[in-house]
Amino acid sequence: MNANHRILALFLIGIALIRVSAAAQDLDNPGNYITAVGKARGDMDTKYMQYISAAAHGRRARKVEKLRQEVLDNITQSRYKTTDLPFYKGDNSLRQAAIAYIQVCYSVFSEDYKKIVNIEEVAEQSVDEMQAYLLLQDKVSEKLQEASNNLDKATDDFAAKYHVTLTKEASPLGEKMESAGRLNKHINAVYITFFKCNYEDQQMVKAMNDKKLNDMEQARNALSGFAHEGLKALDTVKPYEGDASLIASCRKALQFYQTAADKDIPGLTDFYVKQEEFDKLKKNFDAKGSGRTKEDVDVYNKAVIDINASAKGFNQTNQKVNTQRNQVVNDWNESEKRFADEHMPHYR
For residues 252 and 197, what is the distance between their CA atoms, to the nearest angstrom? Predict the structure, then answer.
């Protein structure tokens, strides 16, 4: 019954296509030097956008490890090309800023994203693990955004120093990367509210199957709290580009969890309590053997009628909850996939 959560884009870099007014072709021209520094990154941005897109459209990070290695290869090639560039008339500021940016990208894909892949394996084992998993994604995104900002500033400073006019336009790749980053934040904000309830519901089902009433009640209370809290949190999440379908799907799921926790599950718990009491009564009744009185028989027969009626009610409620639970989880998974497919830029 696990709900699959795909990793989406972490990266908001390269959002501008820089054009320069200089016409000369040699690197003594500051405009051409800026262009050369940008071109040295080659296919690096394109390759990791392919990786992000593949991970977003239904394939988890571990499933696209081959692509991650290809990204690392491209980053390495970009680093070689950038380090091969000469200083600009003794000025190493822009070249060094580009190298620093590439090094951050390499660090992210070789170390940070490897951590994300490892954490992915255990993220669904607890609410804390999932929150740590999503937080790591945010931290990595922030690290890359900071590196990108530093490179942008170094480019602007270099252009101002050497009187180069820069025209910054949104590039197709940059627009897709920016969109992917915003989409990731939106889906994560909605997903965590769903995951908390889904996780506690699974814990409750496990406790019920094991007939551990204390664990079942603890999970039910947590589920109720997360459902009420999550419904309030969803009211603060804005639709993504006017699309509120993911929010609506999550709200529907949380409404089910809230009703289940507050109304349906207590009845199931009561049945287990009654069953324990009946089992004790039956044990005592059987132990009396031929010494049973008419009152003992009457009490036992009434208990049999009561427990059978309770069992019928239990089965009906349990079947209803299970049917609704499966439908809610399936609807959520389909909605999340459809939402990502609709809004996440495909890139090949």
Answer: 12
Tell me phi and psi for residue 225, to 5 degrees. -65, -45
Q: What is the Cα–Cα distance from 248 to 185, expressed in whole angstroms?
A: 17
Chain mean position to CA 151: 29
Q: Which amino acid is at 66?
A: K
pTM recorded for the entire structure: 0.78
Q: What secondary structure letter does DSSP report for 235?
A: T
b (16+ CB within 10 A) / e for 67-98: bbebbbebbebbbebbeebeebeeeeebbebb
Distance, in Å, from the CA atom of 248 to the CA atom of 228, rounded to the nearest integer, reads: 15
Averaged pLDDT for residues 207-221: 93
Sign of the alpha-carbon dihedral angle for 281, 283, 287, 292: positive
**What tokens appear for 252 in the block?**
């529907």
pLDDT digits (tens, 9 = 90+) for 83-134: 999 999 999 999 999 999 999 999 988 998 888 878 887 888 899 999 988 8
